[in-house]
Amino acid sequence: MAIAETGAPLSSGFHALSPGDLAAVVTALEMRSPPPSLKRLVPEADVPLQLVRWKAPDPAKYRLLYRRVGAKWLWWSRLALGDDALTAIVHDPQVEVYAVADRAGVEVGMLELDFRQGGEAEIAFFGLIPGATGKGFGKWLMRRALQKAWSHDGVARVWVHTCTLDGPSALPFYMAQGFAPYARFVEVFPDPRGLGLLGDEAAQVPVLG
Question: What is the mean pLDDT of the chain?
Answer without folding.
Answer: 91
